Amino acid sequence: MDVIICKTSADAEKLTARMIADAINAKPEFKLGLATGATMENVYAELSRLNQAGEVDFSQVRSWNLDEYAGLAPEHDQSYRYYMNKHLFNNVNIDIRNTHLPDGLAEDEEAEAARYDESIDEAGGIDLWLVGIGKSGHVGFNDPGTSFASRTHVAYLNNTTYEQNKIYFNPPESMPRRAYTAGVGTVLDAKKVLQLITGERKAAIAAAAIEGPMTAMISSSALQLHPDTVIILDEAAAADLKLKDFYKEVFENDPKWAKYQNA
Ligand code: PGA
Question: pTM, whole model, 2 decimals?
Answer without folding.
Answer: 0.98
